[in-house]
């Protein structure tokens, strides 16, 4: 194996190590973001449940057959 081929392989290995570090960092960031989104989703479900209890409705309609707006409020709030 020539010296230039060996040097080229060393550069490729160094480049791949840097890329690996970058990808691991990105994976960690994405995992943290996903956890945050899951927590936000859980919190929004709690808010929706609280709103439904507060409005005295367990479905999406009031006594006149109209939508209560609770579901729409949550979507807008998010």
Report what the structure shows.
The chain has helices at residues 3-55, 70-77. It is mainly alpha-helical and 78 residues long. The chain has one domain (3-77). The model has no long low-confidence stretch (mean pLDDT 84). One of its GO terms (biological process) is nervous system development. One of its GO terms (cellular component) is cytoplasmic microtubule. This is Adenomatous polyposis coli protein.
Task: Produce the secondary structure layout.
Blueprint: H1 3-55, H2 70-77
Outline the biggest β-sheet. none
Structural class: mainly alpha
- Helix proportion: over 70%
Q: How many independent structural domains?
A: 1
Write down the secondary-structure element order. Answer: HH
Instruction: Give the C-alpha Rg.
Output: 26 Å
Question: How many helix segments?
Answer: 2
Count of extended strands: 0
Low-pLDDT runs: none
Strand content: under 5%
Task: Determine the N-to-C terminus distance.
Answer: 60 Å
Mean pLDDT: 84
Shape type:
rod-shaped
Organism: Biomphalaria pfeifferi (Bloodfluke planorb)
GO cellular component, one term: catenin complex
GO molecular function, one term: microtubule binding
Pfam families: APC_N_CC
What is this entry, summarized?
The chain is mainly alpha-helical. The protein is built from 2 helices and no strands.
